[in-house]
Amino acid sequence: MSKSADADVIIIGGGHNGLACSAALARAGLTTIVVEQNTWLGGATGTHEVTLPGFKHDLYGSSHVWLHANPYFREIMPDLKAYGLEYIWAEDKITGHPTTKGPGIIIYKDVDKTCESIAWYSKEDAQKYREIYDGFIEIKDGFIKGMFSPPVPPSYLPMAMERSTEGLKMLRDYNLSARAFVEENFTHPEVKNVILGWALAPQIGPDQEAVGQTFYIMIPGIHVYGQAIPKGGSQMLAEALAAYVRDRQGQVLTGSGVEKILVEDGAAKGVRLSDGRELYAAKAVVTSLDPKQNFLKLIDSEHLDESVIRMAKSFSFGNIGVFRAHYAINEAPQFLNGEAMSQTSFQRIFYSVGDTRQHFADIALGVPPRKPFIWTACWTLQDPSRAPNGKHTLIIDTFVPNKLQSGESWEDIKHDYAALVLSKLREYTSNMGPENILCEYVDTPISIERANPCLIGGSTTGGERTLSQSGYFRPMPGYSQYRGPLKNFYLTGASCHPGGGISAMGMVTANEILDDIGWL
Ligand SMILES: Cc1cc2nc3c(=O)[nH]c(=O)nc-3n(C[C@H](O)[C@H](O)[C@H](O)COP(=O)(O)OP(=O)(O)OC[C@H]3O[C@@H](n4cnc5c(N)ncnc54)[C@H](O)[C@@H]3O)c2cc1C
Hints:
Layout: E1 7-12, H1 16-27, E2 32-35, E3 47-48, E4 57-58, H2 71-80, E5 87-89, E6 93-97, E7 105-108, H3 111-119, H4 123-147, H5 156-161, H6 165-174, H7 178-185, H8 189-199, H9 213-216, H10 218-225, E8 228-230, H11 235-246, E9 251-253, E10 258-264, E11 267-273, E12 278-287, H12 291-298, H13 306-314, E13 320-329, H14 339-342, E14 346-349, H15 353-365, E15 374-377, E16 392-401, H16 410-426, E17 437-443, H17 445-451, E18 489-491, H18 506-516
Parallel strand pairs: 1-2, 1-12, 2-9, 6-14, 12-18
Antiparallel strand pairs: 3-4, 5-8, 6-7, 10-11, 11-12, 13-16, 13-17, 14-15, 15-16
Helix pairs in contact: 1-11, 1-18, 3-4, 4-10, 7-8, 12-13
């Protein structure tokens, strides 16, 4: 480290990816400083007591799936236990899909039990689900390697797949929209509804093409990698990573917003904080922020090629935002579908394929969806430590247009709209009346972005998941390998491959840095 440097590597953003990147570098022996604008860590994995004391609400990401598939995270996970990170696994029921007729469909960790649940509605569809799962088992190692490596050129996958009829057929399926895939592969309206609702979680529209991979990967992956939540809230992941870093000579600074990335002779040298302090890095500066902040705000334009600025301006967060109501409640929701459904902590309530398309049509028109599908999560069923004795927390969320065509602000109508989403839950439950609700807190696309400028328009994905913003194109052509347009400048976080999600992909960026400086 040169004399004037404060650390080997400075990392901008104390979300879980910035911290995971720092942890991997600290583990390798480099000194790091993470700088976070908020007074709290975790970014989109933050947990806050926003209703009543003792009720811990995951305001953003809460279901931890993909980081358990990340081989680099798995290496450090045993060490994180010493810093308070304890995962509670959904050993049996993972997701419920309440229906108005029958027992509803439950996605279990066990694929056979899931198929039995689907078979109540259609044996043929259960068989198809099984086939898709079996196909995933064959490709999963290659897929996971691709997910946790710098992305490959766009021609790579088609070239590999077009060599056989079987591969070509699958490539064709990958190019389908979620709706087309569901219509082609499933028969029962309720099963189609369930599978479509599941596939749209990464803020994709039902008619958006080239998302068919979701069905072969994201959906069956849940049976292989499972689903877990950290005891005490998502925040515990960030806190444990920060403690791990601090124990290895690293610093994690909060309340330290970065105002400028300092550049000299075409190389990133450090950062200037909003309080005027400057911090210098001997080897690299890493940003886990979105391309708009990085290239339109933090780096002076004289240091960037015009094409980079243009691409940053074009990077899209889409028009879908998340609307999320949090409740402190006395009793967990009792679903009319029965005990098994009520024991399941996470639910997806969708009505029909037509209603789902209508929901996205409303988003396109800029009107609050009139018959909103909802997700609900009562994480206290899985982790009672998140609420005072016997009480529960509840999330109800849906997707909305992040800008309203009427010119109204979401902040002004949020409680009325929360009443609508709550009324949808009431149609499927017996105990969600006012007597069960102790307190309400509502987040909208506006308040979500206010808390974290990377969540533009209440986006959950770090930027739209379109073909033009995926893989080798993410965040922008020429910079997908986690190396930015300056020397010693690296990119990580949700706007990079593999995109938003709690995946700890920051560790993949760390590997690239270690490789470049000859540390590995
Ligand atoms: C409502 C919601 C629900 C979600 N649900 C799930 C889920 O259940 N499962 C799942 O896998 N994923 C989920 N996601 C996605 C997932 O949580 C995120 O993609 C992921 O946590 C992003 O991590 P990150 O570290 O890349 O970015 P972030 O967590 O956004 O971290 C960026 C950090 O940078 C800080 N920052 C911003 N500007 C500056 C600056 N100028 N200077 C210093 N610091 C700055 C921010 O405050 C923030 O802490 C959800 C996201 C949202 C919003």
